[in-house]
Design goal:
Elements (H helix, E strand, L loop, with lengths): L2 H13 L16 E2 L10 E5 L2 E5 L6 E3 L2 H9 L6 E4 L29 H6 L4 E4 L14 H6 L3 E4 L15 H13 L2 H22 L6 E8 L2 E5 L2 H9 L3 E2 L13 E3 L2 H7 L3 E6 L2 H14 L4 H4 L3 E5 L9 H13 L7
Parallel strand pairs: 4-5, 4-6, 6-7, 8-10, 8-12, 12-13
Antiparallel strand pairs: 1-2, 2-3, 8-9, 9-11
Helix pairs in contact: 5-6, 6-11, 7-11
Length: 339
């Protein structure tokens, strides 16, 4: 099965935080630090997805359940703390950190690892992008099962079920602050936050005072067309300076961040630009061909403003949430200076 064929399920369950499967796993509010480790070894307690996560010691056997989470751990200088990486074939690690993970066992290719495969590497900390990765009904280790095995489980803030509809790019900063506390790498976490905030500020400066183009964010699977109107995806477009056609205020996004739409309804909106997530070059080529053939008179198509972004960069709780803001902004404002 190809990564492309897996994407619709991931869109509706992993990234969206599917209403059925994810409701069965831990869920709750945004993550917020609740305590701090002390030199005497007192436990650090952090609220994550509405439940406490207790850290009794600095983890030494961590697993990243998605390349984006593995990347964050690597950029925090924690390569020696990793005992596993999962969903490793879904997204390549950036070239500058990939060598650091060369000896980290891969315990899941296109999917999260089974409970047995995850526990086989004896982790003491598991870092996931969404609560989907903890769905016992899928054969994965649940948060409760991990707790019974003495393993702390942490979900990216934007991947918490209750955050899926109103998540923001800034949720990443909450995660970095928490990881800095958990692994006692405060300076490294602060540096990543400062760099990300500087990138966002540079975009704000470059587009300030400019007329915002009308933008629709969509997802195309074959000939099935969905609009994206809430969640971190919406916030990414907001940061990129888009006048978004689909917003969280629209009734069709009251319960879910994506909604299937007809080609006629999208054509009627006449967007200046279309932003769409793709899984690989073949998927991008297929989407471009569909959009060009279906909407030849749409301003976005006529003017060549079809903006493809990596689906992994739109995943909650990733550094890609920041870099893709600039990518989209540069496409929307080609004459602006981004420094």
């Amino acid at each position: 099965m190809t990564q492309h064929s897996l994407r619709p399920a991931r869109l509706m369950m992993a990234i969206a935080g599917g209403l059925g499967a994810l409701a069965l796993t831990a869920c709750g509010s945004a993550v917020a630090p609740q305590g701090a480790a002390t030199p005497t070894g007192d436990a650090l307690v952090i609220e994550n997805c509405g439940a406490p996560v207790t850290i009794t010691h600095v983890p030494t056997a961590a697993v990243g359940l998605h390349p984006s989470q593995t990347e964050l751990l690597l950029r925090l200088g924690l390569a020696d703390h990793l005992v596993g990486q999962a969903q490793a074939t879904v997204q390549e690690l950036p070239a500058d950190v990939a060598p650091l993970a060369a000896d980290v066992p891969v315990i899941g290719g296109e999917t999260p690892p089974s409970r047995e495969d995850l526990l086989a590497v004896h982790p003491d900390f598991v870092y996931s992008p969404t609560t989907y990765e903890f769905t016992a009904e899928q054969g994965f280790a649940s948060i409760e099962q991990l707790a019974e095995a003495g393993v702390a489980a942490y979900t990216a803030t934007g991947g918490c079920f209750s955050r899926r509809m109103d998540g923001t790019v800034d949720d990443l900063f909450v995660d970095l602050n928490n990881l800095g506390e958990i692994f006692d790498v405060h300076d490294e976490a602060a540096a990543l936050i400062a760099d990300a905030k500087a990138q966002l500020a540079s975009v704000d400066t470059a587009i300030q005072g400019r007329t915002k183009p009308r933008v629709a964010q969509i997802y195309v699977d074959g000939t099935t067309l969905s609009a994206i109107g809430a969640g971190v995806e919406y916030d990414i477009l907001r940061h990129a300076g888009a006048d978004t056609i689909y917003t969280p205020d629209d009734p069709q996004f009251a319960d879910f961040f994506a909604a299937e739409i007809t080609p006629e309804s999208l054509a009627a909106q006449a967007p200046d630009a279309l932003v769409f997530a793709v899984t690989d070059p073949a998927h991008e080529q297929a989407v471009r061909a569909y959009l060009t053939a279906t909407f030849p008179d749409m301003p976005a198509v006529r003017n060549g403003r079809l903006i493809a972004v990596s689906s992994s960069d739109m995943f909650p709780g990733t550094l890609g949430n920041v870099s893709v803001v600039r990518q989209i902004a540069e496409a929307l404002y080609p004459d602006a200076s981004f420094g």
